[in-house]
Structures are given as structure tokens and as C-alpha cells.
Amino acid sequence: MPSPIPRSAPRKKTAVAKAKTPRAAKAGPAKHSAAREDYLECISQLIGSKGYARAVDIAATLDIAQASVTNMTQRLATEGLLKYEKYRGVTLTTDGAKLAADIIQRHEILTRLLRHFGIDEHTIYRDVEGMEHHVSRQALRGFNALTDELDANPDLVKRVRAAMV
Ligand code: FE2
């Protein structure tokens, strides 16, 4: 999803959560679609920053039509991932919040790793938004461990960056 401001990722170590798929998310063929994950990520961030997520704000953030937002939020509500609140838009259910936390964690781990490569923030953001939907939990654990190593070894980071030129 396009966004002008890349979110900053925490510098501290991140423990990769065990795979826990909420029951509601297991139903349906497109259970982990990128679009669904982008919605949950976006809604979670809007709630974090504004306290609520309205369709108009979701549409603006994801750069899509408000009618599409209404369709998707109705689907997510049917699946038990979010609920409507009068005058406040949507909020995440416990299952929705778990899925959102998972995608946000993937985003943060990948961002921490790519920052070691000295790539510009806009490129990192675009790369991460694509990668976060496809990375396996095993690979994510590997990326997390590798990032911790790079955090602790500035000389290694230097060598990696030098080899990238
Ligand atoms: Fe993301």
C-alpha cells in the first residue's frame, strides 16, 4: 500500500511469535490475502494514531475507493475480524487484532533487516509492503536472528554494504 511516511521500526530485539491463526481467519479460500492483511494493518495503525478507523480514512491511506473499503470491511466483519461502531467506523476484534499484530511484526522485522543494507526509506517501505505478505514464519525467524547479528556486528554491516556496491 502506498504511504508517504515509512513507519519507523523499533531497534530492540523482536521475538517472533509462534504461529497462532485465529479461528475466524481459517475460513474461506483467500484467508491470508495481501489485501486483507493491508486492511488489518491499516485499521490497526489508524486506531493506534486516531483511536478509530473510518472508511474515509482507510480509503485515503490505502489509496482506494471508499466503496471498495465498505465491501472489504463488511467481509472482515462477517469473518469476525472487525466490528462496526456507531459514529466511529470500525474496530478490530481480538482475532483481527492478532492478525494485525502479526503483519505489523513482519513489517518491523523486515524493515530492521533492510535498514542494515543502507537502502533509502522509501524503497525499504515498498519492498517490505510486498515481502511481508509472502515471508514464511521460518524465514522470518531467520531474518530476525540475522538482524540481531547485524545489530551486534557493525563491521559485518560495513562488509555487507561494501559488497553491495
Ligand atoms: Fe506493512
On the 0 to 100 scale, the average pLDDT is: 86
| Strand order, sheet with most strands | 1-2
CATH classification class of the largest domain:
Mainly Alpha
The number of distinct structural domains comes to 2
Give the CATH topology of the largest domain. Answer: Arc Repressor Mutant, subunit A
Using only CA atoms, what is the Rg? Answer: 17 Å
CATH architecture of the largest domain: Orthogonal Bundle
Provide the list of bound ligands, each named once: fe (ii) ion
CATH superfamily descriptor of the largest domain? Winged helix-like DNA-binding domain superfamily/Winged helix DNA-binding domain
What form results from the Cα inertia axes? elongated
**Biggest pleated-sheet summary:** 2 strands, antiparallel
List the secondary-structure elements in sequence, H or E: HHHHEEHHHH
Note the beta-strand portion. under 5%
Question: What's the gist of this structure?
Answer:
This protein is mainly alpha-helical.
Explain how this protein is built.
The protein is mainly alpha-helical. The chain folds into 2 domains: 29-98, Arc Repressor Mutant, subunit A (Orthogonal Bundle); 103-164, Diphtheria Toxin Repressor, domain 2, CATH 1.10.60. Helix content is 62%, strand content 5%. It has 8 helices and 2 strands, in the order ααααββαααα. The protein has helices at 23-26, 34-50, 55-62, 66-78, 94-115, 121-131, 137-152, 154-164, and strands at 82-85, 89-92. The chain has a two-stranded antiparallel ribbon. α2 packs across α3 (55-62), α5 (94-115) packs across α6 (121-131) and α5 (94-115) packs across α7 (137-152). It is elongated and about 55 Å long. The model is unreliable at 1-10 and 23-31 (pLDDT under 50). It binds fe (ii) ion. Residues 41, 107, 128-129, 132 line the site of fe (ii) ion. Fe (ii) ion binds at residues 41, 107, 128-129, 132.
